Amino acid sequence: MKKIQDKDPLKLRNSPGSGKVYTLLVISLALFAAGIALFLISFFSESGKFNRGYYANIYTWNRERLADRMSSVEISFKIMPTLDDLRNRDQFPMEHRSSANEVDQQQVQWNEFFNYKQSYFWYNNTVKNFPQFHYEETQEDSNVSETFCVHLWWNLPRSEEKTFGLHHDVFGQPDCENSAQHTSYKWKANDPTTGQNFKLWKKVNLNLECSQESLTCKLECSQLGGVVGKDGQCHAYDIVDRICLTLDIMLSEDRRSEELYSNGGCYDGHVAHYQRAQPDHLYKLDYVPVEVRSQNDPYVVWAQSNYKINEDTSKLQMTSYVLLIAAFFFGLLTCVSYQSSKAQSSSESKSLNF
């Protein structure tokens, strides 16, 4: 403070009230610096990124009336290949939902998260769609999941669709990696050849190498949820626990109707979400939920963060706003005091001249 007064950047030397002006100036600058620092910390935090993505999607969701547009269509799907002829139907209609499911409501750590109009499609009867997975400690290291493919169709409600019951392929679906010639399960000759690909389980290297004699290392591997393979590497398996696909609703080229385009999945473009499999556990995969959502559904922001909401920094952000407002207030006081000091100094100079 003394150094600033000595340098006298405002040229108030010997002016009445100069000490007060510099005091207010220092307070204003300190508050401004603290406010900017807290704002930047909040802005670049994981919570800040999450909030920006969430509210950006909320804005688009409401502006483009995506909840109503999603509810105005019908969605059906098929997962290929299948294990049983009874499951090898042409397609399965999905249920449209306008409220969050109980599991998500219990899992979300933000009470106001679902305070927007819900609109998505859901299905979970995957009995005999998938093989069982038994994760045993004696599991072969080469256990690899078959690549499955999920294809989507859409349709206008039957009351509005002149071509009764006609379903259209969702545009932009990639090629299925598998085919009828390269699978141990059932494909029909007329099955779609496009759709989003996923595996039911995947091997995860836990970056821990053990000798066969090291019980301590094997115990450490077990605590990580893994087992030591024949190659001495500690590894685990992640097993699918939900499937979520995203769509983009766009106007057709003639701008007379809407068309649905595939936009990948809810998990950074991927459609499958995984959980860590536990050794000596049988996973039947009979009721894996399958969801279809708009790519601008705020839910997708949560899904992309692995269904976790990072530590809330909103209080930090509010504090930064308070500090910046206070800095602005003290800045005004500084300006008023400066003008007052200059006016008083000018008045005294005129008095001395007389």
Keywords:
single chain, 354 residues, alpha+beta, five-stranded antiparallel beta sheet, 8 helices, flat, transmembrane
In short:
With 354 residues, this protein is an alpha+beta fold. It has 8 helices and 15 strands.
What does this structure look like?
- Helix content is 34%, strand content 24%.
- The protein has 354 residues and is an alpha+beta fold.
- It has a domain at 72-199 and 241-304.
- Helix 2 (18-44) runs antiparallel to helix 8 and helix 3 packs antiparallel against helix 7.
- The two termini are 35 Å apart.
- Keywords: Membrane, Transmembrane, Transmembrane helix.
Helix and strand sequence: HHHHEEEHEEEEEEHEEEEEEHH
| Tally of DSSP helical segments | 8
For the sheet with most strands, the description reads: 8 strands, mixed
Q: Helix proportion of residues, in percent?
A: 25-40%
Q: How would you describe the oligomerization state of the chains in this entry?
A: single chain
Strand content: 15-25%
Q: What low-confidence regions span 5 or more consecutive residues with pLDDT below 50?
A: 4-8
Mean pLDDT: 80
- What is the alpha-carbon Rg in Å? 31 Å
Globally, the shape reads flat
Q: By helix and strand content, what is the structural category?
A: alpha+beta
Distance between the ends: 35 Å
Overall strand count: 15
